[in-house]
């Protein structure tokens, strides 16, 4: 049932998840679903837990904590790129499932075992997850997904751009975005590394004062 609900959401967004549509996806009557779940909220709780279950759990014993969090962030980005409708749903549930709870505990475990204080671990989780969610949302709304499409969009902008009035934007497009090898998707890793490096600098409590 949850797989069917996810397929419905992948096509039409979270608003498309209704008992009737999920039942149609399964080829059954809507009333038959009530033998398995009490209501739509239970399905929403379930699909959120299924999304969390698909994200790779970080391991606290893999060495550098940044490697563990980086792997988890990359996995979360990949999963959420497939199910971007889940972004607004994942933090809204009042009854998180077991996969959700295990996921949060694993992330906190990596940070705490790396020496983060409890407040700093909370700051780190909030910052990292906000970055992942924001990047996925931005990617989902970009008007291009391939280098060819990027060239078309950028070329269209340049076609009516007043270069003398907007010299820095022109420079960014011509000398950076349109250069061979440029890949906008690589920005995720660059930004994530900046965040992790900044957190590393504040990882251990300052004992000099």
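-> sequence recovered:
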């Amino acid at each position: 049932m949850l797989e069917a609900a996810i397929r419905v959401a992948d096509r039409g967004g979270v608003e498309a998840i209704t008992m009737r549509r999920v039942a149609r996806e399964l080829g059954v009557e809507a009333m038959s679903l009530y033998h398995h779940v009490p209501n739509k909220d239970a399905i929403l709780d379930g699909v959120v837990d299924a999304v969390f279950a698909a994200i790779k759990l970080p391991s606290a014993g893999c060495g550098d904590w940044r490697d563990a969090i980086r792997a988890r962030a990359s996995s979360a980005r990949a999963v959420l790129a497939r199910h971007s409708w889940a972004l607004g749903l994942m933090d809204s549930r009042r009854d998180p499932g077991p996969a959700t709870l295990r996921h949060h505990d694993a992330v906190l475990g990596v940070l705490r075992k790396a020496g983060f204080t409890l407040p700093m671990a909370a700051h780190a989780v909030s910052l990292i997850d906000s970055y992942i969610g924001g990047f996925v949302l931005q990617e989902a709304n970009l008007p291009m997904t391939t280098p060819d499409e990027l060239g078309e969009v950028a070329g269209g902008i340049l076609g009516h751009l007043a270069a003398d009035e907007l010299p820095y934007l022109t420079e960014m497009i011509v000398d950076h975005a349109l250069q061979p090898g440029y890949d906008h998707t690589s920005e995720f890793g660059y930004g994530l590394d900046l965040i992790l490096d900044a957190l590393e600098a504040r990882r251990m409590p300052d004992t000099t004062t």
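The CA atoms of residues 185 and 206 lie 36 Å apart.
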